[in-house]
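User: Structure please.
Assistant: Input sequence and predicted structure:
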Amino acid sequence: MSRIPHTGEAHAQGIGQRLNWLRAGVLGANDGIVSTAGIVIGVAAATTDRGAILTAGVAGLAAGAMSMAAGEYVSVSTQRDTEKALLAKEERELREMPEEELAELTEIYRAKGLSPELAREVAVQLTEHDALGAHAEAELGIDPNELTNPWHAAWASMLAFTVGALLPLVAILVVPVSARVWVTAVAVAIALAVTGWASARLGGARVRPAVLRNVGGGVLAMAVTYGIGALVGTQL
C-alpha cells in the first residue's frame, strides 16, 4: 500500500523558497512596523506638528524599504554565489573522480543506518538517475533546481516593510493629538503579535515565544524613542 504524505507536513520540494520568502517577508514587516513606529512616536513626543511627523515617517518608510531590499539582495546573492560555487566544485569532482564520489555517497547513506550493500546500491541508483542532484543534496544540502533567488527576497522585504510601516504612520496621523501615541503603540503591539503568530504558524514553531519576542522588542523600541523625543522636545 502506498504511503500518502501528511498534508500539513513540510517536504523538501519548495521548502527552500518558502522559507526564503517567509524569512524576508516577516523580517521586512517587523522592521517596517517597529522602525517607523519608533520614528513617528519619537517625533510625536517632541512636537505636535503633523507635517513634521508625516515627513519623518515617510522618509523613514522610503529609506527603510530601500535598505531592506538592498540588504536582502546582497545577502541572498552572496548565498546564491556560494551555492553555485559549491555545485561547480561538486560537478568537477564527479567528472574527475567518480569512484571516490560514489564511495563518499555510499558512506553517507551507510552512516544513516543502511547496510553497506544497500547503501552502495542506493548510491549507484541515485548517481545514475541524477549524479549532481544526489551528491549535492546528500553532501551539501543543496537542491540544484531550487537555488535561493535574491530578487524574490528583495521584493518580498521591500513590500513587507512598506506594508508594515504604513500602519504606525497612518495610525499616528489620523488619531487626535491627545491619544495618538497610545493608540499607535497599541496598534503596533497588536500588529507585532499578528506577525509573530503568523511566522510561528507558517514555520511550525511555538507561537507564544514568537509573539512575546515581537511585542516585547517593539514596545521597548517605542519606549526608548519616545523618551528620546520627549527629552529633545523639552531641551530644544
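Residues 50-96 form the longest helix (47 residues).
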